[in-house]
Amino acid sequence: MKTKHLVTGAAGFIGSHLVDKLLAAGYAVTGVDNMVLGKRANLAAALKSPDFTFQELDVNDADAFRGCLKARTADGPFETVWHMAANSDIAAGANDPDIDLRLTFLTTYHTLRLMQEFGIRQIVFASTSAIYGELQGALTETSGPLHPISNYGAMKLGSEGIITAALERFLKGAWIYRFPNVVGSRATHGAIYDFLKKLKKNPAELEVLGDGSQEKPYLHVGELVDAMVFLFQKSRERLNVFNISPEGSFSTVRYMAEATVRLASPGAKIRYTGGNKGWVGDVSKFQYSIEKLKGAGWKPRLTSNEAVELAIKENIENLN
Ligand SMILES: NC(=O)c1ccc[n+]([C@@H]2O[C@H](COP(=O)([O-])OP(=O)(O)OC[C@H]3O[C@@H](n4cnc5c(N)ncnc54)[C@H](O)[C@@H]3O)[C@@H](O)[C@H]2O)c1
């Protein structure tokens, strides 16, 4: 009998790639998503698998989520929840703090509550570099103090906190993965996605928020889900915290804008709005140490710029 896994945010960008990866790894998977950003088309391949079921629901609607878990545990319990549902629009959370409270923190809170109720004792959590705030240098899993500068980062850090607290109560294992910027097909947001949308509307000019100097590591979603499943299978501590990132490389926003123009709309003029931040709460520069990740036996193949180029090509196809 295949072990059963539940993915929240399953129809979103990373969630849908994760579903595909978990099915390929031989697990039985149930996905839930409220379809605010998720798309059924992202699950087209998964929906053909007899090992996949999907239910549209809001994780914060405890009755609906409970009903789903009840129905789908009739043939055996879930082993692990992969909690991907959250707000993915960091800038939106700067204007309305309710967004990250509800979508980034309370989704984790409600997921944990129901996991306890249904005796599900393993969680894999999508955390973020945003929890580190503006710490300088190559960030390790023990870097601190942790002072996020966005509501999104704060609510992710709060989520990490209630996960580790749940380890004291009922969880037997937690995997907290701190993603960098993730790019690839089925993107629902992010700089490449925005650039391509803008160029589709106006192929002659690309407006870029900031001055293009922001520099961050970008990881391809295919590599991300590979690392997530690898670490889940290989690292079996009670608490497993990992930064996942390309090694020693990053991409500037200028590089991303120029590459998008080159590949999608050659000759378009790039206009920078100025300032070294894209939006309030944007961490304009950071870098990760991935020594722990490599020590666990996983190494990225693509550099940040290679991941960016691949993602631009994939998303041009998406848009057409
Ligand atoms: N993409 C990145 O660069 C990045 C970086 C760091 C962390 N993350 C985290 O990874 C996870 C996945 O992000 P993504 O980039 O795929 O974003 P996404 O918006 O494509 O995916 C999130 C999915 O969750 C769903 N969702 C939101 N609220 C929900 C709710 N209350 N109930 C049910 N479903 C809900 C959305 O409809 C969406 O399909 C998120 O937790 C995000 O914070 C992403």
Characteristics:
320 residues; alpha/beta; seven-stranded parallel β-sheet; two-stranded parallel sheet; 10 helices; globular; binds nicotinamide-adenine-dinucleotide
Question: How would you sum up this structure, described in words?
Answer:
This protein is α/β, with parallel strands linked by helices. The chain contains 10 helices and 15 strands. The chain has helices at residues 13-24, 62-72, 90-95, 97-117, 151-169, 191-201, 221-234, 253-264, 291-295, 304-319, and strands at 4-8, 28-33, 52-56, 80-83, 122-128, 138-139, 173-179, 181-183, 205-208, 215-216, 218-220, 239-243, 251-252, 269-272, 287-288. The radius of gyration is 19 Å and the shape is globular. The model has no long low-confidence stretch (mean pLDDT 95). Nicotinamide-adenine-dinucleotide binds next to α1, β2, α4, β5 and β8.
Q: What is the count of helical runs?
A: 10
Helix-strand topology string: EHEEHEHHEEHEEHEEEHEEHEEHH
Instruction: List the quaternary state of the chains.
Output: single chain
User: What composes the largest sheet?
Assistant: 7 strands, parallel
Mean pLDDT: 95
